[in-house]
Amino acid sequence: MTDPATAARLVDELVRLMDLEPLGDDRFLAQSEDIGTPAVFGGQVLGQSLMAACRTVGADRPVHSMHAYFLLPGEHAPIEYAVDRVRDGRSFTARHVVARQGERIIFEMSASFQTVDTGIEHQLAMPGVEGPDGLPSELDQRVALGDRLPAVFRPKGLAPHGIEYRRVDPDDPLDPDPRPSESAVWMRAIAPLPDDPLVHRALLAYASDHGLLRAAMLPHGLSFMSGQVRPASLDHAMWFHRDFRMDDWLLYVLDSPSASGARGFCRGSVFTRDGRLVASTAQEGMLRILPKGSLLSSAGRAAPI
């Protein structure tokens, strides 16, 4: 359990990570964090690019969708985001964002915004799963591995983070048994966030990249920590349906309808604790399978769980 002062500091660091420095001409500079992955965490770029796009749109038009491509691995270094004001219509606004490090374009994203309107409503029902209370966090799982946890994962993998994840049906992170691709994870910021809805959407975009590609590995008994998988997110789409708070528990329900051609396709639905569907995600990622221990152990490179 993280003490309140540390929790507040970690969440404040995440909020500052989403706070971009204006450079003029709809360009913004953002810092990067190192969570122990070889390249910058894709969720960070998703959240920051969304924040950049939103900085060029009025608060009366919240974002309702974003579609992104990861073009090159990003370095743990500052990233510049350039926003193109594609269209400002009567009800809808479109923005295109390009992320650069030096001369390299590492990422691009398109986002759509809409005035607040009324219309028909329905939603997918939230599955009946165990609540977050009493479930171990992913950090607890890694700590419980003790000496089994590879040394390459220890510096970052045993450190607390501003967002906590609790799997509904935990497995062995190092040697999972094959199982259906369906899974569910509870997640929330571990301390109160500002009331700005943009901060909550940016941090949900950040968190939505965590564990999504894992769904494609579940039927094959694979994990990021096994040393057998070389993963890379290729694209990421997200739709925001209803308001929510990232500092309240959210249930992330995941599945993978298909894997082929060294790619896995995964989907996610995000529910509030009282069952409202607030967001949906989809992602395809590269999954290259290697002999056990040939990549992570020898290269000393960590990947996210």
What's the short story on this structure?
This protein is of the alpha+beta class and 305 residues long.
Question: Overview of this structure, please?
Answer:
It is a single chain. The chain is of the alpha+beta class and 305 residues long. It has a single domain (4-116, 136-299), classed as Porin (Beta Barrel), CATH 2.40.160. It is 18% helix and 34% strand. It has 6 helices and 12 strands. Strands 1-2-4-5-6-3-9-12-11-10-8-7 form a 12-stranded antiparallel beta sheet. α2 runs antiparallel to α5 (197-208). It is globular and about 55 Å long. The two termini are 20 Å apart. Mean pLDDT is 92; it is low at 295-305.
Low-pLDDT stretches are 295-305
> What is the CATH first-level class name?
Mainly Beta
What proportion of the residues form beta strands (DSSP E)?
25-35%
By DSSP (H or I, 4+ residues per run), the number of helices equals 6
CATH homologous superfamily title: Acyl-CoA thioesterase, double hotdog domain
Radius of gyration: 19 Å
Task: Give keywords.
305 residues, alpha+beta, Porin, twelve-stranded antiparallel beta sheet, 6 helices, 12 strands, globular, disordered C terminus
